[in-house]
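Pasting as-is:
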Amino acid sequence: MANLRKGERCDITKGTGVQAVTCAMGWDVNAYDPNETFDLDVLVFLTGTSGKVASEEDFIYFNHRNHVSGAVQLSKDNRTGEGSGDDESAVIDLTKVPESVEKIVFAAAIFDAEKKMQNFGMVNNAYIKVVGTDSKEELCRYEMDEDFSLETGLIAGELYRRNGEWKFNPVGQGIMGGLEAICEKFGVSTRED
């Protein structure tokens, strides 16, 4: 298993025989109002060469858990983050990812962050890891130990396709504006018409 830092990459499929992975995120809450829940939501974007989704079908989240291709299945929504281990995950069948998809981006947003005055500075021990779905072997992990004390959204990492093989890139980029800002970055409108 590789413990990655920003700028490092991990080969996922090259020479491994891996065809499906589970990308899991975990975190601990270190400070919050006990009268308010602290709900982080994992978001998955399947993007093309433009860095944007082709349609809203390529945005996987708590109300749309499965990609139409069968390539992505998001776990149930963990609304508290309590307990040890993984909090939310997505199973990615790399053999079913449409050819038009170049990256699968994993992000997280704090639900109602502004209303509850919460941010990622209140989150400890955040990580994203990639595990071979069949072997259960952890292929790589990225510990997000940066201080995101103003940010309510976070881009954790991405699987990307290069020369027919899949690799993982740790991103660890905080985003101000939470869900709406992350969605806008990847071409998903959150405005109701």
